[in-house]
Amino acid sequence: MALAKILGIETEYGITQADGFVDPVLASTILVNAYAAARSGKVRWDFFDEAPQRDARGAVNFDAAPPMVETHLANTVLTNGARFYVDHAHPEYSSPECASALEAVRFDVAGELVLRRAVAAASQLPSAESAFVVYKNNSDGKGNSYGCHENYLVDRRLSFDAIVDACIPHFITRSIFCGAGKVGTERLEEGTVETPFQLTQRADFFEELVGLETTVKRPLVNTRDEPHADPRRFRRLHVIIGDANMSEVATFLKLSTTALVLAMAEHQALPQIDLMPADPVRAFKHISRDVSLKAPFALASGRLVTALDVQWALYEAAENFAQREGLAMLGDDGSGELCLQRWGQVLEQLELDPTSAASTVDWVAKLRLVQGFQQRHDLPATSAKLRAIDLQYHDLRPEKSLAAKVGLERLTTDEEVHIAEIEPPLTTRAFFRGRCISRYHSAIESANWDSVVFDLGSDPLRRVPMMDPTRGTARETSALFDQSPTAADLLQALES
């Protein structure tokens, strides 16, 4: 049976101020600190054993530029098990580990609520001169891109070469239903022309097939080998190619289909036909710039296909896999069955009439807005007003956000999201982390993904490891917390 697909999303948000002036590092720091102060206070992030330079290919590439470990920037762990911190020049919300795509959507949307509350808290500070504005997007329109990264638990026995072979065809073609849409082009290669509209915000910025970097020479498949778990058993596939979605259905499809493709790879159940592009990086950009979804690209075999062709082949293989193996690895809340249902539905919509997917696919909803405004005002495709619409689609202010006005279908309720902002998932080790922070905040010295460090005052610091993301769930530890009024009680109970 395939390994349970524990998963989560890390979202870097664009930030500015209402008066247009902003120091992004300072602004991001203010948001993180303001949110922590408005809650119960900061819990320090533990950087023990962080090593983003570890490469899944084994050899060290001295030309690579992995992300720096920025221990000096604002960083805190939340009661829902998430991490909220400053990453380079952006506020980043990293969701807790989730056991299903539906659960991950709830905690991703909870991240939007965290950012809105952080903005509100920062606006109350005496030093606040103008309001902060935050965008859930991936490009500032000036040649700078920032990420929305996904993480998936994968069996260590699956070779990294097999992961690359499985993921490349899916990664470059899934943008037809999970691309966030983008007005214009920011990086033009020789022989290409300006594109009025693209499916994805990130395609312009990718240059390599595989690699360790995330901010330069971005690869389609990131090779960082930092499992934040037992490295003998687990990999953590760090996916950097995706867009930040405003559509909850698009987020769900992005996560669930990728988790299912990885499960099929673990079972050697992928389509038995060649789906590898001849030039994957060029094909990714080609697909992004084809809003008709009909322009073919070449596979390594020489066969010409469209992105829809590749997605249909993966979907049919997934149906066969589900019939043979079931979908328990995608969670016990129906995420697997919903994945197949919505995957097939969106492919049919995109094949017959892409506009029919406007309530679920971000790029379709955004393109309709852009084209409508352009036609009403007789604007050229290069108009700055169209780029402004693009940006406003991602505005987190409900009264300003265009995404909030186009009728996107929701998979969550407001009540679920408010709970997810405070409470951790019940289904992974994030429950143990979150409960420790909410119950024993004053005794927590620091925490990270795979451990919680306690400071009881007189004793040495005590580290509680959590090397299996599937353990430490509510079912396993709720009684332990009920019986432990203090952190000392909890540690004693764990030892016994």
Question: Key features?
Answer:
alpha+beta, Creatine Kinase, Chain A, domain 2, 6-stranded antiparallel sheet, 496 residues, 2 domains, 17 strands, 3-stranded antiparallel sheet
Characterise this structure.
The chain starts with 6 loop residues before the first strand and ends with a helix. Strands 3-4-5-1-7-12 form a six-stranded antiparallel beta sheet. It has a three-stranded antiparallel beta sheet with strand order 15-16-17, with helices on one face. The chain has helices at residues 24-38, 101-123, 160-173, 175-178, 248-266, 280-288, 307-325, 335-352, 362-377, 384-393, 414-422, 430-439, 474-482, 487-495; strands spanning 7-12, 14-17, 75-77, 83-87, 90-94, 132-135, 148-155, 182-183, 197-198, 206-211, 218-222, 234-239, 297-298, 304-305, 444-448, 451-454, 462-465. The protein has two domains: 7-416, Creatine Kinase, Chain A, domain 2 (2-Layer Sandwich), CATH 3.30.590; 429-495, no CATH class. Helices cover 37% and strands 15% of the residues. The model has no long low-confidence stretch (mean pLDDT 93). The chain is of the alpha+beta class and 496 residues long. It has 14 helices and 17 strands. Helix 2 (101-123) crosses helix 11 (414-422), helix 5 crosses helix 8 and helix 9 (362-377) runs antiparallel to helix 10.
